[in-house]
Design brief:
It is a single chain. This protein has about 325 residues and is an alpha/beta fold. The longest helix has 21 residues, at about 225-245. The protein has helices at about 5-10, 25-45, 55-65, 85-95, 115-135, 155-160, 205-220, 225-245, 290-295; strands at about 20-25, 45-50, 70, 105, 140-145, 165-170, 170-175, 195-200, 250-255, 260-265, 300-305, 310-315. It is built from nine helices and twelve strands. The chain starts with 5 loop residues before the first helix and ends in a 5-residue tail after the last strand. It has two domains: about 15-175, Rossmann fold, CATH 3.40.50.300; about 195-315, 2-Layer Sandwich (Heat Shock Protein 90).
């Protein structure tokens, strides 16, 4: 395996959390890069957590012969919402990092299975947020394989901006295109689909909000289980909006294909980039609303700035009729 560049070996000017993008083409390149990364970990006495699509997991399992330092996890149990992934990685890596043992993660997102442009955008945002979530975690590092076989250079460029390092020929190099800014360049939210329902709200309107969302979601075809989950999420987000968003806001609901959406707009500001992404501690006061929304909804989009206020969109899948 090629030696690391001297600047990288010395650790100069690189983040403590090593976050590498690994573009590959085909099974052979996938195995070469991931097995090399795992071999480095095993030589250094590190544990490895692997979260990749099932076909890729099968390839790796066939080469590792039940290596005890390598743990495979199934991300499909988390559901479709990328907002759950940071919390999951925190839990997986803490479980494997006994004491001060370093842990490496291999996380490949099934990008081609993205359900919508909004879902794809949130997947990229998750990759960027990993740098913030683990910024001070020098004991952890992560490799993100990406199948570049379809030659979509725009998609690869967008994803590369979320990774400080790129793995090439068995070692990593600094990514000059990494977006190190404090603010992420979100894609613009799509306008609500016509027809949409709108309701202004203020103190004392929580019951009206729940009733409005429940009726609209039911009319759209959201099943009973989805209605119950959505009712809890809506209660949490509406309560936060009234309490922290200036005491009033605007609710909108609409359907887009097989998705029901409800949107809350207010004048508040959420400064914490990680809000709702990590599990609240048992003794934490507040901060559970966005976490619950991420656990209960199929996608959550948040846009918040000091000048323009906050938008929270909750997505709920509508089962297709057979």
């Amino acid at each position: 395996m090629s030696a690391l560049p001297s600047s990288e070996r010395s650790g100069q000017d690189r983040p403590s959390f090593r976050h590498e993008l690994y573009p590959y083409r085909g099974d052979a390149q996938f195995l070469a890069g991931t097995l090399g990364y795992i071999h480095e970990a095993l030589v250094g006495g590190e544990a490895v957590v692997v979260a990749v699509p099932s076909d890729r997991a099968t390839l790796l399992r066939g080469e590792l012969a039940d290596e005890p330092a390598v743990t495979f996890v199934d991300t499909t149990t988390l559901g479709p919402n990328p907002g759950r992934l940071v919390g999951a990685w925190v839990a997986w890596m803490r479980e494997r990092g006994e004491g001060d043992r370093p842990v490496r993660g291999i996380g490949e997102t099934a990008w081609r299975e993205a359900r919508s442009a909004a879902h794809l955008s949130e997947l990229r945002y998750h990759e960027w947020l990993l740098n913030r979530a683990f910024a001070r975690s020098s004991a952890w590092s992560m490799l993100c394989p990406y199948d570049a076989a379809d030659d979509d250079q725009g998609a690869l460029l967008s994803l590369s901006r979320c990774h400080p390092l790129i793995r090439q020929d068995g070692h990593y190099v600094r990514n000059e295109g990494y977006l190190a800014a404090e603010e992420y360049p979100f894609d613009a939210l799509d306008a609500p689909c016509d027809p949409f329902q709108e309701l202004g709200y203020t103190h004392g309107d929580l019951a009206a909000i729940r009733s409005k969302v429940s009726q609209c979601a039911s009319d759209a075809g959201v099943p009973e289980d989805g209605l119950r989950k959505l009712a809890v999420a809506v209660t949490e987000i509406a309560t936060n909006s009234i309490r922290h968003g200036g005491g009033h806001g605007t609710l909108r609901t609409w359907t887009n294909g097989s998705t029901f959406l409800c949107e809350f707009r207010d004048a508040g500001y959420i400064p914490d980039l990680m809000a709702g992404r990590t599990r609240p501690s048992a003794d934490q006061v507040g901060g559970r609303g966005l976490w619950l929304a991420h656990q209960l909804c199929d996608l959550v989009e948040i846009r918040s700035t000091p000048n323009q206020g906050t938008i929270v969109r909750l997505h709920t899948d509508i089962p297709r009729q057979t």
